[in-house]
Amino acid sequence: MDNLRYIFDSTSEKAIFYQSGDFLFPIGGNKAAYWIDGEYVFPVGAPEIAFWVMGNELFGHLGNGELTREPVYYIGE
Questions:
Q1: Which of 8, 22, 42, 77 has the least CB density, counted as fewest CB within 10 Å?
Q2: Sign (positive/negative) of CA torsion 38, 44, 50, 51?
Q3: Is residue 29 helix, strand or coil?
Q4: What is the b/e burial string over 32-65, where b = at least 16 CB atoms within 10 angstroms of the residue's CB?
Q5: pLDDT value of position 63
Q6: More confidently predicted of 1 and 66
Q7: Which among 37, 10, 8 has a CA at the least distance from the CA of 21?
Q8: Is 73 exposed, middle or buried (0-12, 13-18, 19+ CB in 10 A)?
Q9: pTM of the model
Q10: What's the 3-state SS for 36-75?
Q11: What is the dihedral of CA 49, 68, 20, 47, to 10 degrees?
Q12: Mind listing the pLDDT tens digit for each residue in 14-58?
């Protein structure tokens, strides 16, 4: 798989997703749950922003441009 990266839960530090190309897949799954467009992460099949990528951290999008105070996930290798 090209550009394979893992997404970890910021609290438990367990791998939750893996990224291949522009898509995030649940660990152990082969159906994409999210897709990435630049700094934004969207649920597959939905137009609303789920997460905002800042560096190697993903913050939850609460709506109206508001984000969670702490990162929900982080990107590892």
A1: 77
A2: negative
A3: coil
A4: bbbbbeeeebbeeeeeebbbbbeeeebbbbeeee
A5: 83
A6: 66
A7: 37
A8: buried
A9: 0.87
A10: EECCEEEECCCCCCCEEEECCEEEEEEECCEECCCCCEEE
A11: -10
A12: 999 999 999 999 999 999 999 999 999 999 998 899 999 999 999
At residue 3, does pLDDT exceed 90?
Answer: no
Q: Give me 21's structure tokens.
A: 């190309």
Per domain, the residue ranges of the chain are: 5-76
Sign of the torsion angle spanned by Cα atoms 77, 31, 11, 71: positive
pLDDT band at 65 (very low <50, low <70, confident <90, very high): confident
Pair type for strands 34-37 and 40-43? antiparallel
The length of the chain is 77
